[in-house]
Specification:
Length: about 350
């Protein structure tokens, strides 16, 4: 029998690994807090657990492949045609599909860097070439440089706002000027996974932008503000051909019956959602104020996390947090992202990070 192994794509050797936020190291006497994955610290919204329980009773049956009830609810909420909606296993699942339908070998996918780490991964999987444009000094997208980087090979552009991991938003006026320079046959994705936390009145309005421009689509998720990270529900709002392409490439039955029921119940709990989001935004404001008093110069965050540049002290901060049962998310040599969690978790982080503040 041959000792050779199956021949796999050479692309796998160039594929960066997706690094998920790690849980804290267990330590006796200290409540563990995971501030490394931008998870919502609150319990499920009212009615969600009950909806999940009812839906779980039908787990022996396949889910509705069209997610019909959820699509209808989203169409009404955002006042968009049903045929302009596509659902997926979190916005990251749709992100992979977006690359699949728009780019392949010889094509380029353009995005800011550092930004969401799935962008280069999904691009390389598709055989396309990632083009990374450095952020500005203020951690925001350099849209002028991104426009300059567009070539005849560019097929797709990601604009992540608020940007993960820096928290900075793109302003609507800046996006409009950028889009005026983008060829009409290049698809632009406005990735708004954290949009519910935005309070900047000048920030991008993704759905309004989609309405005005046929080459713009929007990605949203139930994982962050709605607290359904473990159930994997995301949706895209896009014009007909793009939305149809996403439905064609979706994993059959990918959004489970339980996930569909949980998302529907979450949409029905709008008042409770807004209250919880306001609590997180309030904690974000408090944490940013304390960090500023400590001497940190931060990019204003419009998401549910803050971003710190520490140079060669990143490992020290991560270890110091781990020692007190607190997990944060390092990004190579670039910085550390810290989720806004429970007030007790935030206070513990603020205590640990104080000695690291620039003087």
């Amino acid at each position: 029998m041959s000792e050779s192994t199956p021949r796999l794509r050479e692309t796998l050797g160039r594929l960066p690994a997706y690094v998920a936020g790690k849980p804290p190291t267990a330590a006796e006497g200290l409540t563990p807090y995971k501030l490394s994955s931008n998870e919502n610290p609150h319990d499920p919204l009212p009615g969600v657990l009950e909806a999940i329980t009812r839906a779980a009773a039908a787990m022996n049956r396949y889910p509705d492949p069209a997610s019909s009830a959820l699509v209808e609810a989203l169409a009404q909420k955002y006042d968009v045609p049903r045929e302009h909606l596509a659902l997926g296993t979190g916005s990251v699942g749709l992100l992979q599909q977006v690359v699949q339908i728009s780019a392949g070998p010889g094509d380029e996918v353009l995005f800011a860097w550092r930004s969401f780490e799935a962008y280069p991964i999904m691009t390389i999987i598709a055989g396309a070439t990632p083009v990374q444009v450095p952020l500005r000094a203020d951690e925001g997208h350099d849209l002028d440089a991104m426009a300059d980087a567009i070539t005849e090979r560019t097929r797709l552009v990601f604009v992540c706002t608020p940007n993960n991991p820096t928290g900075a938003v793109v302003r609507q006026d800046d996006l409009d000027r950028f889009l005026d320079r983008v060829p009409d046959d290049v698809l632009v994705i406005v990735d708004e996974a954290y949009v519910e936390f935005v309070r900047d009145p000048d920030a991008v309005r993704g759905i309004e932008t989609y309405r005005a421009r046929p080459n713009v689509a929007v990605l949203r998720t139930f994982s962050k503000a709605y607290g359904l990270a473990g159930l994997r529900v995301g949706f895209a709002i896009a014009h007909g051909p793009v939305a149809q392409g996403l439905r064609q490439t979706q994993v059959p039955f990918g959004v489970s019956t339980v996930a569909q029921a949980a998302a529907l119940a979450s949409l029905a709990a709008e008042d409770a959602l807004l209250e919880r989001v306001e609590h997180i935004v309030g904690e974000r404001t408090r944490v940013e104020a304390v960090l500023a008093d400590q001497g940190w110069r931060l990019p204003p965050s419009q998401a549910n996390f803050v971003w710190l540049r520490l140079g060669d002290r990143i490992g020290e901060l991560v270890a110091a947090c781990d020692a007190v049962n607190l997990a944060v998310r390092p990004y190579g040599d670039d910085g550390v992202r810290v989720t806004i969690g429970e007030p007790e978790a935030n206070d513990r982080f603020l205590s640990v990070v104080a000695p690291f503040a620039p003087r």
